[in-house]
Amino acid sequence: MSLHAKLMITLLLAGNAILVIELLRRKRFSESYTLLWLSVLSLTLVATWWGGFHAALAYFFGAIAPVSTLTLLSLVFILGMLIFFSMKVSRLDAQVKELAQELALRTSSSPGELRTPRPR
Amino acid sequence: MTVLEKGLITIPAFNEAETIGDVVRGILGENLGCDIVVVDDGSSDKTAQVLGSLPVIVLSHPVNLGYGAAVQTGMMYAVRNGYDFLVLMDADGQHISSQVGLLLEELRRGNDIVIGSRLSGDSGSYRIPFLRMAGIRFFSFLAWVLGGVRIRDVTSGFQAMRREVFTVLSREYPVDFPDAEVVVMLGLRKFKVAEVPVAVRERQGGESMYSKFGTVLYYPFKSVLSSFIVLLRMLREK
User: Fold this and answer.
1) A89 in contact with chain B, both atoms CB, cutoff 8 A
2) Fewer beta carbons under 10 A from the terminal one: N or C of chain B?
């Protein structure tokens, strides 16, 4: 990889790191996700500058070009993230359902009672 | 086995302002001696206002959670308030309140859950469309193969059940399309599932959850998958 490419990737990664930290500052991200993304960005940075890393990976996977190994790993990473977030969303779904049901049960209105407006 | 004294009729309702009043009045007219709980599943029409003028218990979901979740909320209410039996009815006016007695009679004969079947005998004026009929037959077959329960109409929402059954279901109930997988689960848990022929009407208003776009593809896939998952879970529990 040329020095120019390495510098461009480093710039992009730095931009991403700033974005992630800014999102945490604005409370759009939780600390745990910030740490996750910063770890991913750091690993990518190491992989960019450590030349032997690409070659070692390509050798390990039996690939001819280091680029194909990186593409494969990127796809696996994206798939992993999607599965992780699907699990998260499913768990949040279940929690929202439980909360809404509990709320309905606790605010049930019986005949003759003055009903309060439904929470929105 | 519990004595069937204290009963609860549960009606899940989502945007059923047109019909819910008549459904409740029909049940009240039967003098069944049961309490009625309507679970308003986040309706955006005037369902809540209509319910406000009726002598029923209202449980309001703050957001729309789905038919299964509404049924489950009704079951949770029944468990927490010590009911002996529970009757499930639709809010669209399809189920005829005078038929509740038929379900209860069969429940008193020692069955744990009784399903009102639209396919056994004369189902009145209601005609099931061809595709839905094919689906019902397929899922009834699936419930027989996986759960060992031989009934003809596993998709009927007109049901009566004992406390033992709704206690289990209140803990574990699908959010949407609670049909074949529930019957499979009950069969595997060795509950006595029976079916009685009931007359039903065409829906009196509102929109069926089966008529939504995408349901035709999602429903069969989801029901088959869930039924097999129920089987796997039960095998793992053993």
Assistant:
1) no
2) C
The domain ranges of chain A are: 1-49, 55-107
> What residues contact residue B167 under an 8 Å CB cut-off, 6+ apart?
B75, B79
- Reading the block at residue B115, the tokens are 């399903």
Nearest CB partner across the interface for A107, out of B54, B60, B80: B60
Q: What is the full DSSP assignment across B2-21?
A: ----SEEEEEEESS-TTTHH
Q: Is B2 inside any structural domain?
A: no
- CATH number of the domain at B191, please: 3.90.550.10
- Work out how many domains chain B is built from and give that number: 1
Q: Domain for residue B64, yes or no?
A: yes
Range of the domain at B178: 7-237
User: In a mutagenesis test of the B interface, which of A91, A97, A107, A120 is the best target, namely the one with the most B β-carbons within 10 Å?
Assistant: A97
**Interchain pair A118, B48: CB under 8 A:** yes
Closest residue in A to B51 (Cα) is A111
CB contact under 8 A, B62 and A119: yes
B72-92 pLDDT, tens digit per residue, is 999 999 999 999 999 999 999
Nearest to B161 by CA among B201, B197, B191, B198: B191
Chain A, chain B: beta-carbon pairs less than 8 Å apart: 53
CB contact under 8 A, B62 and A111: no
Residue B5: what pLDDT?
83
Which of B14, B63, B169 is best to mutate for the A interface (most A CBs within 10 A)?
B63
At residue B11, the pLDDT reads: 97
pLDDT digits (tens, 9 = 90+) for B12-50: 999 999 999 999 999 999 988 899 999 999 999 999 999
SS3 B59: strand
Interface test with B, best of A103, A108, A115 (most B CBs within 10 A): A108
User: Tokens 């009102």 appear where?
Assistant: B116
| Residue A77 DSSP SS3 | helix
Q: Do B42 and B15 meet the contact criterion of CB atoms below 8 Å apart?
A: no
